[in-house]
Amino acid sequence: MQNKHFHLIGVCGTAMGSLAGMLKAQGYHVSGSDKAFYPPMSDELKRLGIETFDGFDSAHLQPGPDMVVIGNATSRGNVEIEYALNKNLRCASMPEVIREYFIRGKHSTVIAGTHGKTTTTSLMAWVMEVGGLDPSFLIGGVAENFGASFKVTGSEHFVIEGDEYDTAYFDKGPKFLHYLPELVILNNVEYDHADIYPSLESVKKAFRLLVNLIPSNGRLIAGWDSPVVREIVEKPIAPQGVWCPIESVGIEQVGAKWTAREIDFLQEETRFKVLCEGKEWGNFSTPLPGMYNVRNCLAAVAAAAVLGIEREAVKEALATFKSVKRRMQVAGVANGITVIDDFAHHPTAIRETLRAARQRYPERRVIAVFEPRSWTTRKRVFQKDYPVAFSTADYVIIAPLFESFRLAADDQLSIDEVLADLRAQGKTAFSIEGADAIVAHLAPELLPDDVVVIMSNGSFGGIHQKLLDALAGNSA
Fold it and tell me: What are the structural domains, with CATH classification, of the chain?
């Protein structure tokens, strides 16, 4: 059985690459193909020794694998999918394989919501690790405490990032509906993934379905600061209400069971006190910056309490958590200038990332560089949100819309309007195309102690290293 061959179509996706590693860790023969390979997952696949093919070709499925795993970024017309269908090869979606080969029979902790899933999943896995539960996990990014995006163990616990994006071309439901959730963290819900969700109502429906899957002996950790999460809990899909007990967590909203107080943002750490039902539960510190990360930590604390993890272990885990690659990650420092790499690709994520940068570096100039690459960031639906999202930055550069030809002209975000609004706030703001041109413009403008926050959910032409190299050259 261990010689079974899995071939993954779209293997460089963060979750697909992690699944490839998990399958290999179980002793299976694993191969994969994709149209492009870029860090961090390309580095991870190489480290894992996964056999990869650059581009798609039916020859990659000859001889036929035992299972063809089809990623949700691929669709009909892909030559490998067409070959698999024509040859009647056994095919499955990524979530189906995860459920049947890794989750079934274990206690499943699912972390869901619009923002913070990857960080909170990584944090939850680390809390459980320090707490002695030895969890298996799958994360949509590389968790720095583990140096990996997955871990396969023999314990009864599995932790997974619950993505609301669709499953495969043949299954348009959200991935998280496959993960047999028993403990769910639902931190926040906003409109996102405009390519598959036509409205906020359709997003709410997806999360209501997730909540309705939790068994009566399970638990929901609900982010009370999110009005949409409260609405999902108060108006669930089932008329009798949510079937399981609810642990509400929040900072701003009155009435949350778990809350954080005395929050102090320092240069190297964030400190806060946790209260449960108004009573002090413990004092915590984390290297993570920003209020949104306090919420992530608070959810993990509540979940840890549900799992019976000792408080001292939770404190140790939060204090020693190293975050995730591409989440407020310092890519490097050159000539006294700090360059940060972040995955932000939603106006709220941009806003909170820049606020976190301001809190961590309060006396320094913050420069925001953003690539509108995801479907959501390229659409006009968030036109009015961007001036607020960038308001914390001192200097803004926005690249042109990635593959703008894929959207109708009247549906596109107007970068010119965003720039005009930012300039009306008194900010320096430009639109510059291409990593090389941005670096050529920006490098001479930067001063020692500046903080450059580069945000994209793609490789952005390797801009991070190009900027660091240019800055190092300037200091020579």
Answer: 5-93 (3.40.50.720), 105-320 (3.40.1190.10), 329-475 (3.90.190.20)
